[in-house]
Amino acid sequence: MNYTIILENASIYLEGIGNTLQLVSLSVFFGFFIAVVLAVILTSTKNPVFTLPIRAFVYFFRGTPLLIQMFLVYYGMGQFEWIKSTFLWDYFKEAHFCALFVFALNTGAYTTEIFRGSIVNTPRGEIEAAKAAGMSHLLMLRRIILPSSFRRALPAYGNEIIFMLHGTALASVITIVDLTGAARIVNSRFYSPYEAFVTAGLLYMVITFSMVWGLKKMEQRWLGHLQRGSSKG
Amino acid sequence: MISLQGYGPSIWEGTLLTINVSLVSLLVAVVLGTFGALAKLSGIRLLKMSAQVYTTVIRGVPDLVLMLLVFFGGQTLVNQFALLIGYEEYIDINPYIAGVSTIGFIFGAYMTETFRGAILAVPYGQLEAAQAYGMNRRQVFFRILLPQMVRHAIPGFGNNWLVLTKATALVSIIGLDDMVRKASLAAGATRMPFTFYAAVAGIYLMITTISIYLLRWLENRYSFGVHRD
What we know:
heterodimer; A: mainly alpha; MetI-like fold; B: mainly alpha; 0% strand; flat
C-alpha cells in the first residue's frame, strides 16, 4: 500500500465525497416527495386511471437495474429529435442532471412501496379515533395517518437511503466524479487499484455507518414509544 | 414491436450470459451464505467475528466499488503472485470470474443474514426433540432443520435473488458481454440507445416477473400444511 498517492490526491476524493453526498441528499429529498404523493394517491383511490400508471412506474423502477435506467435517460434521450429541439435538452445533456433525475425517480418508486405498506397498516383504532373526533379526510391524513406511518416506515426507509447511497456509485459510469469516480481517476492515473478502491470503500463505510447511526437516533426519538423498555424516554 | 435492427441474436446471447452470471453467482452466494450463517451461530469466537466483519464490510461498501477492486486489484495481485513464482507473462483476469465472484461474495453476505434468521426461526425444542430421539447431528440437520429453515428462508432468498439479477448489470462495466453491454454496442452502432436499453429493461422485467411467480409457487409449496390466521 502506498498512502502518498491518496494524500496527494486528497482533493479529488474530497470532491468525490461532496458529489456523492449531494447526489444522495438531493435524490432522497425529491424521492421523498414523489413517494408521499404517490403513496397517498395509491391508498386513497381504487380508480385505475390513477393507480395503474403509479403501479406501472413502481413496477418498472423496481424491476430493472438502476444502471439501465440511467443509460435510458442519459444516452437514450438523445435519440429523440423532439427532445433535442426543446429546452429539455439543456437539462438532459448534463450527466449530473440525468443522474439526479434517475436516482430521485428510483428511490421515489421504492419509497412509494414502503410508504404505501405503512399507510395501509395504520392501526384501525387511530383512524376511528380521528373520525370520531370529527376530522376530515385531509386533516386526518395530515395529523394522524402520515405522521404515524412515517414513524413505522422509518426502519425500511432507512435501509432504502443506504441503498441509494450505494446506488450513487453508478454515477461514476456516466462521467460524474463522485467518490467512486474519484477512485477510478486515481486508479487509472497511477494504476494503483488497492489504494484507490480500498480508500473509497473505507470512506463509503464511514458515510454508511454515520448514516446508520443517525437513523438509529431518529428511530429512538420517533419510534421510541413502540419499543420495549422505552419508559426512560 | 420495436425493431432491433438485426441485433436481436446478439442481445439474446447477452441475455443468456446475464442469466448464466446470475445463476452461478447465486450458487456462490448460497454456499457462502450457508457457511456464513453457520459461522455466526457456531459459538466459536473467531468464526463469529470473521462472519461479522464480512457482512459489515459488504453492507458498508457499494457493489460497484467492490467489483472494481476485485477486477483491477485482483489483476495486480495475480500478476505479482505469478512473478513471485517465476511466471513472467502478463495474466489477464477474466471478467467473468471477477464478476461472478464479486456478486457471489456480495450476496453471500445478504444470504448469511437470511439463513441465520431462518435457522433461528426453527423452534429450538424441535431440534432438542430430534436429539432426544437419538438422531445424530447430520440427521437433525437434514431431517428437521433444513426442511423447515427453507420455508423461512424463501422470502428473504427471493428478495436477494431479485436484487442479484439486477446487480449483474454491473458486469458490463468491467467488460463482460452481458446484455447491457451488447445493448451498448448495438446502441453505439445504430445510434438508437433508447430502443436497445428499453429492450434490455423489458427483458429484466420479464426475468423479474417470472422469478416472482416461481418464488410464490415455491413459497406455497414449502408452506404446505402451515396454518395461517
